[in-house]
Amino acid sequence: xxxxVVVESVxxxxxxxxxxxGVSFDVYRGEIFTLLGPSGCGKTTTLRIIAGLERPDRxxxxxxxxxxxxxxxxxxxxxxxxxxxxxxxxxxVYENIAFGLKIxxxxxxxxxxxxxEVAEVLELTEHLExxxxxxxxxxxxxxxxxxxxxxxxxxxxxxxxxxxxDARTRExxxxxxxxxxxxxxxxxxxxxxxxxEALMLSDRIAVxxxxxxxxxxxxxxxxxxxxxxxVAQFIGSPTMNFIEGVLRKYGxxxxxxxxxxxxxxxxxxxxxxxxxxxxxxxxxxxxxEDGSIDAKGAVEGSVEVIEVVGDRLALHVRVFRDVVLKVYxxxxxxxxxxxxxxxxxxxxxxxxxxxxxxxxPLPTGVGHGIP
Length: 371
What we know:
Blueprint: E1 3-14, E2 17-28, E3 32-36, H1 43-51, E4 58-63, E5 66-67, E6 78-81, H2 93-103, H3 108-121, H4 137-149, E7 155-159, H5 167-184, E8 187-192, H6 195-201, E9 204-209, E10 212-217, H7 219-224, H8 229-234, E11 241-250, E12 253-258, E13 261-264, H9 266-269, E14 281-286, E15 291-293, E16 299-309, E17 312-320, E18 323-329, E19 340-345, E20 351-354
Parallel strand pairs: 3-8, 3-9, 6-7, 7-8
Antiparallel strand pairs: 1-2, 1-4, 4-5, 9-10, 11-12, 11-14, 12-13, 14-20, 15-19, 16-17, 16-19, 17-18
Helix pairs in contact: 2-3, 2-4
């Protein structure tokens, strides 16, 4: 695939704070690529470096195959939509969209043609004569997008553009943003701290933590195969279930010892190289949809909370100490608060992490696992 944006070993410090630490990734032509992470992880600084608003201390940025590291923003063929839409409220929607074209001294006839085309794509045609300050938040976001799209940049950069709207409007705007991007085929680099937003919108996601890029993949890859404990904890709603313990081996069988409980992991050991984790503290995790009530399950617990989720029940089951596991079930009969149940987990969906490093061991047959 052709890369529209290449970020190569970029680092940036602000005083003693390392905001971005050796970050590298490619953004392919025509995809929505999302930088995802908690506040302070470096995602917005990375976006600003790509936009030319910050200069990296080290590393290079390429756009369309051209090294733009030393170029000012206006020469990078990008357009940035900020969290605050910054429309000109006293100007009409048309004047807002046309603003960038007029600065570029585009002929009035071409301005009218391009504004009309973009307004039609974004469903703003009926609002063109209205004052921008009198339309809704959804329309204001579209105005900000239109103002960028009309100048036909190679890459559209969006910095948490949906943060300021309510949940219902945000859901509508996510869907519209995806549809718009598909219609025009523009490359989008999107920044958000909202993991659900990233999973819904993105072709690929780059998860960041403490200035570092920790995993890049499709939404399915990030969700189904987190490569670190951080990603496993950060991605998913509800969150993944976790059990801490020490990995042991008795009579050739792998066991997780957690308090007085022993959980067999032989099926999991078929997936991972666990030998190098022997006698070390580990964390095993699984998503609620990958657990189930099973009379032959390895772990017993007591049902503390029951939630109705569509045609399923979400059970909160206290299994020991401070560990409460959440699983889904369609079994409605005989499950009440206080019920004793046994749980089993699909072994192909169990994740194992070294507690100290936070890393996942390699798959069986690959390398030597965690050093």
